[in-house]
Amino acid sequence: MRFTCYPAIDVRDGCVVRLRQGDYAQETRYDADPLARAMAFADAGATWLHLVDLDAARVGGYTLAPLLRRIADGGRLQVQTGGGVRTSDDVAALLDAGAARVVIGSLAVETPARVVRWIERFGAERIVVALDVREEDGRWLPATRGWTQTAGSDALGLLSFYRDQGLRHLLCTDIARDGMLSGTDPALYAALRACAPSVAVQVSGGVRDLDDVRAARGAGCGGAILGRALLEGRFDLAEALAC
C-alpha cells in the first residue's frame, strides 16, 4: 500500500490554525494566508494537501471553495478536504471546485447508509470517511459536529460496515492526542488495520517527529496527517516525504 504524507491546513476565520484536542477555545493561529502556506508545502515537494474548514465543521456550509479552487487550479497539489459536508450536492460542489477527495465526518457516523450511496455515486477513490475518536472504557467512540458530540457507536464496528461496502480511504484522528505533540497510539492504528487491511488508513493526531511518520508507514497505514509539528518546524516536510 502506497504511503502518503498529507500536510494539513485547518482554516478558521480565514487563518491557518490548530486546535488542541479539538477544542475551539484552545486555538493557535499560524498564518493569515492559507494559499501561501499551501504553496510552501508544494515547494517542499508535497503532492497532497489536507484542507479542513473548521467553521463549517460545527455548523455546516463549506466556506473554502474559492481557496480550494485556487489551489487545485495551480495543478501542484491534490486536495482532500472537508468540513460541514451534509448533502450529496455538497460533495458534488467540492469535487467540481477541484477536490480530489471529499472528507465525510459527522454524517459518516450518523447516517452510514447515506455515505455508502455517495461512495457508490462518486467512487471509492473520491470519498474519505473520517472517524475522530476518543477512547472510553476500552472502546473507540467517534465524535461528531466539530467534536462537540460523542456517538455511542464503536469505531471498529463502523469501519467493518464501511469495509464491506467498498470503502478505500479512512482518516482516523485520535482526539486526545490531536495538537498535543504526544506521539501516535500504535494500538489504535493496529486495530484499524487488522479490521480492514484493504482500507488505506490515514494516521491523524499526535504526529510529532519523523519517527511517528516512519511508524505509521511501518504499520502498513496509507498515510499520515502532518499538522502542528510541521507548522512549528519540528521536522522538515521534505524529510518526512523522503520517509
Question: Would you kindly provide a written description of the structure presented here, covering whatever features stand out?
Answer:
Keywords: Amino-acid biosynthesis, Cytoplasm, Histidine biosynthesis, Isomerase. This is 1-(5-phosphoribosyl)-5-[(5-phosphoribosylamino)methylideneamino] imidazole-4-carboxamide isomerase. Pathway: Amino-acid biosynthesis; L-histidine biosynthesis; L-histidine from 5-phospho-alpha-D-ribose 1-diphosphate: step 4/9. The structure is a single chain. This protein is of the alpha/beta class and 243 residues long. The chain has an eight-stranded parallel barrel with strand order 1-4-5-6-7-10-11-12, surrounded by six helices. It is globular.
What distinguishing features does this structure have?
RibuloseP-bd_barrel, 30% strand, HisA/PriA, EC 5.3.1.16, 12 strands, eight-stranded parallel β-barrel, alpha/beta, globular, 243 residues, TIM Barrel
